[in-house]
Each structure stands twice: as structure tokens, then as C-alpha cells.
Amino acid sequence: MQEFICQTSANPSLFSAEGFVGLIFLVTIGLIVAGALVATCARRLVRSVAGLALCFTGVAGMYYFLLAPFVAMMQMLIYVGAVAILIAFAIMMATPEEGDLPGRRISALAGPLGFATGALLFAALTVLAIRTPWQVFPREGSADMKHIGTVLLTSHSMVFELISIVLLIAIIGALVLARRGRN
Amino acid sequence: MDTSIWRPIIYLVCFMAFAGLNAAYLGWCERKGAGRIQRRTGPMEVGFHGLLQPLADGLKLMTKQLLVPEGVDQILFRIAPILAMIPALTSMVVIPFSDNIQGRAVELSVLMLFALASIGMIAILIGGWASANKYAVISAARAVSQNLAYEIPMLLTVITIVMITGSMNLQDIAMDQQGGFWHWNIFRFDKSIFMPVSFLIFFICSVAETNRAPFDMAEAESELIAGFMTEYGSMGFGLFMMGEYLNIVVGACLTTILFLGGWSCPFGLFPGVWWFLIKIYILIFTFIWVRWTYPRTQVYKLLNLSWKILIPFSMVNLLVTAAFIKVF
Q1: Domain count, chain B
Q2: Angstrom distance (rounded) from CA B241 to CA B5
């Protein structure tokens, strides 16, 4: 994969190596967008979770595409294997017999206003993406595990410590919540 | 050879054949094993000692009508069996069967196997929920809580092995244990005095992860009919079963590579794929043996075993291993 990144031509054919890599990139994007659409549009909550899992898988593919296989695997393991499953769990415990949710309408203005906001945000982001002179930074080391480990325990140890504190707080919070329900 | 188009095609065909044959004939082995343990003969009618039974079963499953009951979630109901099969098949790619038989040498193959296993959990959850059957939903919830609980001690045990070897590559882990059984991770007392116990923990976890007896709470027939597979017939059910047997194969492969020296010979003679196969089939036989010997546990005991015994012990083992590596 490494060698494909360096050589890019303007219009690669589909059957060349670059063309195929581009196709994989598009498939990954498609997975993300399709997953996101299912997650937001589905009427049934479990379908939304399935869409979310699909979206996470697409994001993992994107990480793999960006030569960060470790992050991709962790994305699968944590987001698909734990987060999506816990959400599905919560839904199944809370509403086992939900059926189709009725389409709620808060106000007549909600639709057009939401659309306008979305369009404005999209336009702004597009303008920003096109106008910004993107710099390509040189790659800093490699994305393999040894490098990640070294960096996490030396130059980025603060992040590492902060994450462990966040996790500790989450565990304590979960314990407090679970204890309160006992009696 | 590495860039040739033939290599992936040959590997694909061989893995599919390996997977298909295993899924079919492990069912036969299981029935024969169950029969022998219960003083019966098992299948005898179709072919010599029932050897053609899997073929007959497969034909029956494939020719049956694909029934989709009313009230199920149409899309998710059809996707779930496929999702159960995909990770089990894909896992084959990274398993080193020998020093030169490996579909693709992935640097993070251990992590990749566990990442794929998480898709299997989603399949069970989706399949159970989409069936719109209360037994299926209860079974899916049980299966997934069990899988989540046993994944933690399993990963902690894997981390000790990764620390000992210093690599997440299954091939490197197998290479590190070459030359005689005293080099195998299970007997490496210089790295941690608890290695045999952590092998036992890993084996228990892989039995629990594949939802096999005595941990088959998800398919407790007396309570839940057939668990999350209740509403599935014909090949939907067939795919779930194949996925289950393939998961057993993958679990046995992983145990062999992590603890039993992968494709190395116990006495340092002729290492190769045959030793690997012998080891995994001994482990698979143990799976069958355990299933028909021990009665089913209860769901509370099952979760207590993981959270109160296995997880604390694996954490202690992790610390002990780290200390041993630091000191020696």
C-alpha cells in the first residue's frame, strides 16, 4: 500500500493500482455515508444502531486507508465491538416492543429552517475546504504500534494520563449510578 | 510470487474449502463424539459410519424453502446469518498455518482477529432482535453479555503473550516458540509462573466466546428453544451453524498459536502445517468432549466466573508477567 500513495497521476484508469485504490476509497466513503444515512433516517432504533455500526466500519476502513492499521483495528474493537453493542443493549432493554415510531412534527418551520442551516453549514465547509491552501506535512515516524507506544509514554504522556483519568471518572460514575438503583 | 494474481485466488479457494469441510465435518464429529460419550453410535446410516451425513444435511438445508416469518425485520433478518459467517471466514486470512502458509502477513493479526470477532457479536444481536421473538431477544442479550464479559480476560491474557513476544504478529509469536515444547508459551515459567493457568483461562474464554456448553446459555434448549436461531430455517440456520463451527476452529487456531507453539513440533522435529492441524484438532476434540461431559451452568454463575475470578486473576497475571519481564 505504501508505494501507491507516493505516485499519483491525474486520471488513473480503473484497472491500474491507483485506480483500484481510488475505488476502495470511494467504497469506504460510501460505507460511511450510507451508514450515517441509515443511522439518522431509520424509523426503528435497532436499524439506526446497525447503520451506526456500518458507519464505524467505514471509518475504520478510512483509518486503514490512511496507513494507520492500529487505529483502524481499535476503531473496530472499541466502536463496533463495544459502543454499538452497548447502545443496542440499552435499546433492547428499554423498548423491546417499539414498532414504528410515529413521525413527530414540532413546527412547520422546523423543516425549512433545518434544511437552511444544513445547507449553510455545507456551503461554508465547502468554501473553507476549497479556499484553504492545504499543506502536506511530512510523515512523522510511522503509525506502527511501537512508535505509538513510545510517543504515548514520552512526548504525549499528558494525553495518556488524562484519558486514564477520564476513564476512572466514567467508572466511578457508573458505579454511583448503579448503586443508587439498588435500594 | 507475492504479486502474482494466482496466490490470492489459490488461497481463497483453499480457505473456502477448508472452512466448508470443517463446518460440515465438525458437525459429524460432534454427533459421533456425543454418541460415543453417551454410549450410542451416532450417525451410521448414510455412507460408511455416517460419513456422508454432512452432505445429506447440507443438501437438505439448501433445498429447503427460505422462510421469513411475518413481523420480523426483513432486512436485518436476512443480513444477520451472513454477518455471522463473514468474520469467521475472514479470520482465516491472517492465521499462519505454517511458516510459509499464511493468507496475508498482517502486522497486527492478533488485534485483527478480535476486531473481526466483534462483528460476530453484532450478528447475534441483530439476528436475535430481528426475529421478533422474545426467546430470541433474551438469547441474544445473554449471548452478547457473555461475549463482552469473556472478551476482557481473553484480551488481558493475550496482552501478556504480546508482552512476552513483543509483537502482535501471530507469525512472530509462533516463531518465538520454535524448538521443543519447553519453548511453548504455556510452559514458559521464566516469563510468568502462571502461564499454564493463563492457558486455562484463555481456553475457558474461547469456549465461552463461541457459546459452547457448558456456557451455551444462549441456546439453552430447555429455556429458550434454539435461542437467537429460533426463527431461522434452511440455510439461514445453516450459516449460523457454520459460523459457530468456524469460530471454534479459529479459537482453536488462536489458542494453538498463542500457547502451544503454533506449527512447531513438541520435540523439534519436522515443524510444519501437520503439527498445527494435529494441535487444533486435539483442541477441537476437547471442545466436543467438554460439551458432552459437563452440564450447563446458570447465567449468573457464568457472569460471576468471568467478573469475579477470571478478570481479577488475569490482571494479577498481567502484573506478574510485567514484573518477571522487568526483573529477568
Answers
A1: 1
A2: 32
